[in-house]
Specification:
The chain has two helices and no strands. The protein has 99 residues and is mainly α. The protein has one domain. The protein is rod-shaped and about 95 Å long.
Length: 99
C-alpha cells in the first residue's frame, strides 16, 4: 500500500511540477514573443503612420492646389461672364479672392 501511495504521490508531484514548469516556460516564451511582436508592431506602426502622413500631406497639397486652381479659374471666369453666375456666388468669390 505504501509503494502505491508513493507512486501516486510521485505522479501528482510530476504533474504539478510540469504545470509550474509550463507556467515559467510560458512566461519566458511570452516575454521573447512579446519583444519580437513589439518590434514588428512598432515597424508596422511607423510604416502606417508614414503612409498616413504622406497621404494626408498629399491630400492637403492637392486640396490647396485645387483651391488655388479653382480660385484663379473663377476669377477669370467672373471677369469674362460677370453676371452668368448667381450674384451672391460671384460676389462672395470675388470678395474672397480680393482678400
Amino acid at each position: 500500500t505504501h509503494r502505491t501511495a508513493a507512486r501516486t504521490h510521485a505522479r501528482t508531484h510530476a504533474r504539478t511540477h510540469a504545470r509550474t514548469h509550463a507556467r515559467t516556460h510560458a512566461r519566458t516564451h511570452a516575454r521573447t514573443h512579446a519583444r519580437a511582436h513589439a518590434r514588428t508592431r512598432a515597424l508596422a506602426h511607423s510604416r502606417t503612420r508614414a503612409l498616413a502622413h504622406s497621404r494626408t500631406h498629399a491630400l492637403t497639397h492637392s486640396r490647396t492646389h485645387a483651391l488655388t486652381h479653382s480660385h484663379t479659374h473663377t476669377h477669370k471666369h467672373t471677369h469674362k461672364h460677370t453676371h452668368t453666375h448667381t450674384h451672391t456666388h460671384t460676389r462672395s468669390h470675388i470678395h474672397i479672392y480680393c482678400l
